[in-house]
Write a structure and sequence with these properties.
155 residues, mainly beta, ten-stranded mixed sheet, two-stranded antiparallel sheet, globular
Length: 155
C-alpha cells in the first residue's frame, strides 16, 4: 500500500487511517477526478472503532459538504439517525438496506428529507457501495437524543 495506508487482504483495498488523507490536494475544483484512483479511508465510530466501513470523499470535507462514496461490509448495520439536510443515495453495487423502507439495489436512488429519522441503515449479504450526497449542511443526529422535526420511521 501507499505511505500511511495498509492493504486489507479481505477486500484488497488500500485503506488509510482516518484523517491521514489530504483530500484538498486530491480533489481540485473544476477538474476531472478519477474516483477509482482515490484512496479509501477507514470510517471509525464515536468510540474510535473501525467497523469495516470505507469512504472516499468526492468533495473536500473541509468545504462542509458531505459528498462521498461509501463501502459497507456484508450485513453491516448503522444505528437509526437523521440528517439536518435532504440526502441522496445512489447505489452502485449490492443492496442498501433501510429498516422500515426495504432494499435499494444497483442503479436505484434513495432520497430522504432532512429532519426525518430512519431506521438502521446497512448492507445486504454481499455488502454495498453507494454515493451519498448531503444537499446542505450535513449534521447526523440520534433520534433518541434529538427528536427529529419531521418524525420517525417507527412512529
Amino acid at each position: 500500500g501507499a505511505p500511511g495506508g495498509r492493504r486489507d487482504r479481505k477486500d484488497a483495498m488500500d485503506i488509510r487511517r482516518p484523517g491521514s488523507v489530504d483530500w484538498v490536494a486530491l480533489l481540485p475544483e473544476r477538474r476531472g477526478i478519477d474516483v477509482d484512483a482515490l484512496p479509501w479511508e477507514a470510517f471509525v465510530d464515536a468510540r474510535g472503532q473501525d467497523l469495516g466501513v470505507r469512504m472516499k470523499w468526492i468533495v473536500s470535507p473541509t468545504l462542509g459538504k458531505n459528498c462521498m462514496l461509501l463501502h459497507l461490509p456484508p450485513d453491516h448495520r448503522a444505528p437509526p439517525h437523521w440528517h439536518t439536510s435532504d440526502a441522496l443515495y445512489l447505489v452502485l453495487r449490492g443492496q442498501l438496506v433501510i429498516e422500515g423502507e426495504g432494499s435499494f439495489g444497483a442503479g436505484q436512488v434513495r432520497w430522504v428529507r432532512g429532519g426525518f429519522a430512519y431506521g438502521a441503515e446497512g448492507a445486504g449479504p454481499e455488502g454495498c457501495e453507494f454515493y451519498f450526497f448531503s444537499l446542505g449542511p450535513y449534521g447526523q443526529h440520534d433520534p433518541d437524543v434529538e427528536p427529529p422535526p419531521l418524525g420517525r420511521w417507527d412512529d
